[in-house]
Structures are given as C-alpha cells and as structure tokens.
Design a protein that fits this description.
Helix content is about 45%, strand content about 15%. With about 140 residues, the protein is an alpha/beta fold.
Length: about 140
C-alpha cells in the first residue's frame, strides 16, 4: 500500500487490493472512495470485492468512477459530494492516485490557495501545476 496524504482528512493511493483494506482501517481511515471504473485494466479487483472487504473492516465505501480524460461537471460534483459526505479521513484510490489527486485539486481550487494545493499535491508526489494553471485561466 502506498498511502499519500493531501490533507489531514484525505489521502490518495494507487490501486488497493481487498487484502489491503484491514490495514487501511488500522491506519485510521473511516472511508474509501474508488475512482476507477470496473474493468479498466486486466487483473484489477472490481469495486464489489473492495466494498465487501470495506464492509468487513467497518469502513464506508463510495464508488465515484472517473474515466481518464472524461471529467465533466457531474464527475466533479459527485467527487465533491463524496468528500463532503463520507466519514473522514477518506482514502481515495485509482490506478496510480493521479486521477484522485486531479479531482481533489479541481474541488479545492477556489477553496484554498493554489500554493497550498501545490504544496500538498507535490508532497504526495503529484504535479498539479499545469492543472491549476488551466483552472485559473478558466476563472
């Protein structure tokens, strides 16, 4: 497992496996958000397997599938709602963690200073400078 915090209440990770979920709960997380569509890659566990493990570990799970390169208003709203509604701290995962970080960046833009977003995302190993530049140009 590769847990990368972006804030005290939110972290991202590359793909997790059902057998990782107990350790995620032991690490103090209360919820998991899956941002991968099922069947995106051969060998990836479907969300049902992660959900079953989460239920056994006492964690809430929300599936907010984000298709890479297909982010629209509905996806942003669903991600934001999950962040607001899930018990914190939340661990979000996708294939590499980049998609989750990108979504977090979009949601946080305008809520927190861009410099703080960049510090958090770069500290987790993700470069969101280009995305923040695009968001700033859009107003």
């Amino acid at each position: 497992m590769d847990l990368r915090p972006l804030s005290p209440d939110f972290a991202v990770s590359p793909q997790i496996m059902p057998e990782d979920v107990a350790a995620i709960a032991e690490a103090g997380f209360k919820s998991i958000m899956c941002n991968r569509p099922d069947g995106e890659e051969w060998g990836q566990p479907d969300v049902a397997a992660i959900s079953e493990a989460a239920e056994k570990a006492g964690l809430e799970l929300r599936w907010v599938p984000i298709i890479s390169g297909m982010v629209g208003r509905d996806e942003v709203q669903a991600f934001d709602a999950a962040m607001q509604e899930l018990p914190a701290p939340v661990l979000a995962y996708c294939r590499t963690g980049t998609r989750c970080t990108m979504m977090w960046t979009i949601v946080q833009h305008g809520r927190m200073p861009d410099a703080d977003i960049l510090k958090a995302t770069s500290g987790a190993g993700y470069d969101m400078a280009g995305l923040l530049g695009q968001l700033s140009q859009q107003g």
